[in-house]
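[job 4471] stage=fold_predict status=RUNNING
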Amino acid sequence: MRRSLVALFLCLICTSAFAQNNRSAVSISGNDAAACTVPDPCRTFGVALSKTNSGGEVVALTSGGYGPFTIDRSATIIAAPGIYAALVATSGDAIVVNSGASGRVVIRGLYVYGMSSGGSGIAVTGSGAETHVENCVIEGFAGFGIIAFFNVRVSNTTVRNSGTGIEVDNVGAALKATINRVEVRDIHGGNPFGIVAGRNSRVSVRDSVIANVGFDGLRADGGIMTAENNLVSECAVGILSANGGAALISNNVVTGNGVGMRAFSTIYSWGNNKVGGNITADIDVGALSPLSTM
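[job 4471] inference complete, writing structure tokens
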């Protein structure tokens, strides 16, 4: 009987040691040896995630700097209201989403900095479902503000001072992206594109500002981009289609660019766009396909 009680006691200790949280927490005064609960927070997102159930959440409780991390499961990563939770990655990617075939991820309220040398702010490299980026600021990455090879939804977010703003691309499977109420500006890196719909992608861009971009503001590069109610300004080319891509555009303001719109493949316009005041030309029809009006 005594031996059975000892065994039960040890079993309970083991179960407690490996218990996972539905809600974990991080704080700048936390400790990664802690339980990562709200009363006993950890210091880093990566450790807190390792102690969180799939589908759970990790909350930043205090303002300050937190290091880069990988999201390897379905999870919500958020800063509590009024909290300034910042990440700095001077090399590599700040946040990698590799959450698996059915992974659903939400990243909300974070400030992500690359100091001009980091790779990407958010890299969605392995998530079969969706990644949501909400109310974030991403700045100073040599590569991409956001690069996604799987479905992504970006809203109320600013991407600036990076190599490329947002790119969605997949050589294999089809993927979708929605980009709403986003500001992409001051993009002057090695491939300075604002928002790119790459191979096998369908990208919707709505109610957004794309400004001061070294090459193309909105680029349908092998994918299909639907653009509505956007301001595109101060770019070398405002809207461009290439490599079999198609841009479907409605009610955009395209002004102050070198060239307003350039069609190397297909641009469909609903005829209600305001294209004018561009420096070299408002519309430059490429050799492959004319601009179509619907």
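[job 4471] summary: The longest helix spans residues 2-17.
[job 4471] exit 0
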